[in-house]
Amino acid sequence: ALGHDRDNAGSTAVSSGNLMVQAVSAIREVTPDLAVTTEVCGCSWTSSGECVLRTPTGRIDLDATYRLMGEMAVQHAESGADVVSPTAMLDGSVRAVRAALDDRGLRDVGVNPNLAIHTTLYGPFKALMTTDPAVGHRRGLQLEQGRAQRDTVVQARRWIAEGADSLTLQPVMTAVDVLVRLRADQEAPLVAYSTSGEWPALRELGSEGMVEYIAMLRRAGADHVLTFAAEQVAAHLEQNHG
Ligand SMILES: [Zn+2]
Asked: Could you point out which of 42, 45, 95, 221 has its C-alpha 20 to 30 Å from the C-alpha of 51?
């Protein structure tokens, strides 16, 4: 587990000077022009590894979860984040985050919720962040693979109605069809998130192959691509196109 305390309430997620705040501030200091996006979710901070908080009887505690996400968003924004990403796929969470930011006068901070399709490709990230719940799973909140085209479009419209400025789809390697369908339905900026489990396969492509892969995602409808190859691709493009 990463070096911070975790409890049932995810308290460290909103403690002053926590790891996320330190990271955002450090990036801000070194590269003031870089856009910074943060994840707003309970799973890296709760002892259960769950994205949401629960009542003593085990139900999702909506009020407590919304409050946690809102407070996280405000804290990240005040540390320098330009965009915050509620990732739990919990209906109402985008509205709660937007409202919390607006209440603090942080109207220019973007909200970029997740469209997460259930996949084994989140595996390496979950292992690293210890976010694999010991009991149950978060599949109930994620989109089902077999219905992902329709369900993603429905969820995307819901997020926009709750106040989202842009949308992140993950994974992409096994969901390019969903990206195409989403693009046809949405004018909001779309981010294609190439997840941790895709990376071992993509790494084999090399720099030029990655550039080609990203071009394919752009063709399919992505305005932005989140990838572990960002540095490698940037260096390659700089070398080859001056
Ligand atoms: Zn989460």
From this structure: 221
Nearest CA to 7 among 41, 71, 53, 40? 53
CA 142 / ligand 1 centre spacing (Å): 11
Distance in Å, CA 129 to ligand 1 centroid: 10
Our measurement of the distance from residue 214's CA atom to the centroid of its chain's CA atoms, rounded to an integer in Å, reads: 19
Q: Would the CA dihedral through 37, 40, 45, 50 be positive or negative?
A: negative
- Write the pLDDT tens digit of every residue in 32-90: 899 999 999 998 899 888 899 999 998 999 999 999 999 999 999 999 999 999 999 99
pLDDT at residue 108, as a whole number = 97
CA distance 178 to 221: 10
CA of 13 to the centre of ligand 1 (A): 12
What is d(CA 84, CA 195) in angstroms, rounded to the nearest whole number? 18
Strand partners, 114: 168
Quick check: 7 and 46 in contact, CB under 8 A? yes
| Full strand arrangement of the beta sheet holding 224-226 | 114-116, 167-170, 190-193, 224-226
Give the integer Cα–Cα distance in Å for 188 and 164: 9
Q: Is 109 helix (H, G, I), strand (E, B) or coil?
A: coil
Beta strands in the chain (DSSP E): 37-40, 83-86, 110-111, 114-116, 167-170, 190-193, 224-226
* Distance (Å) from CA 216 to ligand 1 centroid: 28
Inter-axis angle of helices 176-185 and 148-162, nearest 10: 40
